[in-house]
Amino acid sequence: MGLHCNGGHGRVSVPPSPSGPIDRTGESDRRAGSMAETVLHNGVRVLTEHLPGVRSVSVGVWVRHGAAHDAPEVSGASHMLEHMVFKGTRRRSAHEIALSIECLGGSLDAFTSREHTSYQARALDQHLPMALDVLADLVREPNLRDEDLALEREVVLEEIAEVEDTPDDLVFELHGERMWPAHPYGRSILGTPGTVGAMPGDALRALHAESYLGRRLVIGATGNVHHEAFVDEVARLFEDLEPGDAPVWVSAPAAAGPADERVVRDTAQSHVVFGTPLPPHADPDRYGLVLLSSALGGGMSSRLFQRVREELGLCYSIFTYQSFYAGVGVGGVYVGTRPAAEERAIEAVRAEMGRMAEAGLPAGELEQAKQQVKGQIMLSLESTGARLYRLTAFALHDEPFLDLDELLDRLDAVTVPDIARLAARYLDPDRHRVLRLGPD
User: 37, 82, 233, 239: which is the annotated catalytic residue?
Assistant: First the structure.
């Protein structure tokens, strides 16, 4: 399909809608406020959230297959496939794909996570059919030619090399390998130079044929979108897909125990990560852990920032982090500091974690953390893209959708005893695995 720009206006064409009504036999619907969901007969889940007052839409297709599903010998295949679909499809060249949305003032993007692969577009509401058509083309009709793979393999190898040269990224990769040795969660999403360098085209074509099917797709749109019209468009583009197998859950790993390890690199700073296993995404303790993380290291007012940076001057960057997967979570602290200050910075972090592990949070500080987290959530949801991620996350984890009021109620329900219990269990520094990346 061609697309031409003239005077800043895109003249676009998409395949015509079917002349007759779409057969809705076997579909199911659910609505909650401005959120609506329809499951097509082949298992494709379609979700929308209508936002009055905006003239844009964010739309995405999620494939419930990510890096943790890759076999060890083809580690990085999911990420490589995400790259390869942009090299051309049956109806569009790579250049036409790049032009298709940008020519209309929108944007097109993709990413691979441990459990999902995502393709998204943002555009004016009037261009939603075009945006969805491009995403369908990428997901359904990629060429996946060996000659394109030879070129894109070099691009991904450069991406791996870039991580190697970015120590504050690399330290998290190395920490994950040591936290979950010999488990998919511990492998790099990008793969290794060895697996990427030897990646066969047949592996990518088999992955696409087996996983980019109906029951593994979640398709969502937020903004000025109307559910029934959007479902019609999705059905037109995706209803003939085979259902395929149900999504595969990654088994929960057994984490390695606490340790303190150094990886020697000639860097100007020492990069230090504390980390410990957390509950999985579906665990209700997630809400308390988010509040605990915010109070400890979630901003300039947090305990770690005030103590380690402002009072002691031992670092420029310090923060807490958390990730929640289907099988397990992980959370902890990152600090970057000059090698001469490394030991003092680590001891200061351990002291703050220990104080919170012993005493939890007083009621006033817990209330402050709630206000901070709730404010961040509400401000982020002024973005259609952020709302799209939130909308689809529930479906991707097979969890019931929570509207904003319900989510805020979950945070408000966290009590001082809840925080004390979680802090004692997850913030004891002696339970953390510490990795230091920097000079000997």
Answer: 82
